[in-house]
Amino acid sequence: MFSAISASSVRRRGAARLAAAVLVSGLVAMGSLAGAGAAVADDTSQHPGGAAATLDGLKTYDGAVLHANGKDQQLPAGLFEMTVDGGGKLKTYCIDIHNPTQEQAKYLETPWDQTSLGANKNAGKIRWILDHSYPQIDDLSALAEAAGTGPLTEKTAAAGTQVAIWRYSDGADVDASDAEAEKLADWLEKSAQDSAEPKASLTLEPGAVSGKAGEKIGPVTVRTDADSVAVAPPADAAATGVKITDKEGTPVTTAANGTELYFDVPSDAVDGTASLGVQATTSVPVGRAFAGVTKSQTQILAGSSESTVSATATATWAERGAIPAVTAEKNCAEGGVDVTAANTGDAPFTFELNGSEHTVAPGATETVTVPVGEDEAYDFTITGPAGFTQNFKGVLDCETTGTPAPVTEQPSSQPSAASAGGAAAGGLGAMSGTGDLAETGSSSATPIIAGIAIALVVLGGAAVFLLRKKKASASEE
């Protein structure tokens, strides 16, 4: 029997949310302790492909007023910027008003159904707003004329656009501070129509395949809006002899949308796994969602330079026995993570997940939904024959917070203590007057430091407990 090692997901609310990055790191460490003795897992987040980027901060913004709990809270509203891994810049708006951003947070291009947009009947109207306002419409005079406003600046246009988006993304009662920005927000809200979700910039479908040595394993289909993508063979291709080819066996180094790729595995290859990668430079489609790898407010794309996008797929092969291919993706509708295991071998593939044993018959596929609470971190590993391991970890962030934290009074000339969209005062990512992410002052940093200290103590205790438990188990054996 092949087992899966599961590390418990731990809910982190209130002050602990302020130390999200630390907590996730701790959960990963605990997962490693729980899995000691097993083969080293290939850490894999549930990223189907596309752009990966780091948040640079709020760059173009003006003021807004959030009306909640009978109080008014002033906060900045406007455009964020991100730096794409491998090159490129993105401009985004927030679609998660009650949660703060985390400084230098890592973001991944993500399908709508794996974010709060999946259950939002107005998601298509947000896409329309993005297509019909700043920065897609950068002629501010034309935008002002269409919307029936007075003169607009980049800052007020960005603020008005963000306010209109918040009304649909979060159902927020929010107004722009500037009169012309407020008119723009009202026009965008009233004019918005349903638009379809844009296609991903680059994905490979499926993300994992399996088969027997001596076969062409696949196909893996390229999905992209780029004209052409580069195809990289497995890193150890020279040693294993594995090639990336088309159906006829011709080696492939470039591909386009719809191209089918195969892993051509020699008949004498030792049982194992390999990965192929594809990469392109393209403009990421407006309206693509970007979700934080750790807990950080979800964003939606408003503009993209030519940017690097990539995707990977893996293949597993063996001469006989179970030959698994395992993938996972967030399932916001069911509140969990779908783990799909396919078995192309001639023997059953049995694994344990979330305390239950599952067996996939030869030639069959089974999907198991692992329940995960909103805002919970998860980390689990599935193991199989010939050293096969697949690790999945991340944070389930499928909802916008329904009720914001109590409003803390802010001087009217200063942005909120939380970054744009972070209505909970005191969150990480406080904004400076220039719009860059800034160091928080001593008063607002105090709860952050306390939260991190508490998190470290909890994680330290958990690590000691796990080590003692492991030692005790070893002595009993």
Give the helices and strands, then pairings.
Blueprint: E1 4-7, H1 20-34, E2 43-44, E3 52-68, E4 71-84, E5 89-94, E6 106-110, H2 123-131, H3 140-147, H4 154-169, E7 174-176, H5 179-191, E8 202-205, E9 208-212, E10 216-224, E11 229-232, H6 237-240, E12 243-245, E13 254-255, E14 260-264, E15 272-283, E16 289-292, E17 299-304, E18 306-318, E19 324-331, E20 336-343, E21 349-353, E22 356-360, E23 365-371, E24 377-383, E25 389-395, H7 442-476
- Helix count, DSSP H or I runs of 4 or more residues: 7
DSSP strand tally: 25
Main β-sheet description:
6 strands, antiparallel, barrel
- How much helicity do the residues have? 10-25%
Radius of gyration: 24 Å
Overall pLDDT metric? 79
Shape: elongated
Strand order, biggest sheet?
Answer: 3-4-5-17-16-6
Q: Are there runs of 5+ residues with pLDDT below 50, and where?
A: 1-45, 402-420, 423-477
Distance N to C terminus: 20 Å
What is the strand content? 25-35%
Query: Which class do the helix and strand fractions yield?
Result: alpha+beta
Summarize the structure in words.
With 477 residues, the chain is α+β, with helices and mostly antiparallel strands. Helices cover 21% and strands 35% of the residues. The chain has a 6-stranded antiparallel β-barrel. Strands 9-18-15-11-13 form a 5-stranded mixed sheet, with no helix packed on it. It has a 4-stranded mixed sheet with strand order 1-24-25-2. A hairpin with a 4-residue loop joins strand 19 and strand 20. Helix 1 packs parallel to helix 7, helix 2 runs antiparallel to helix 4 and helix 4 packs across helix 5. The longest helix is centred in the C-terminal third of the chain and has 35 residues. The N terminus and C terminus are likely disordered.
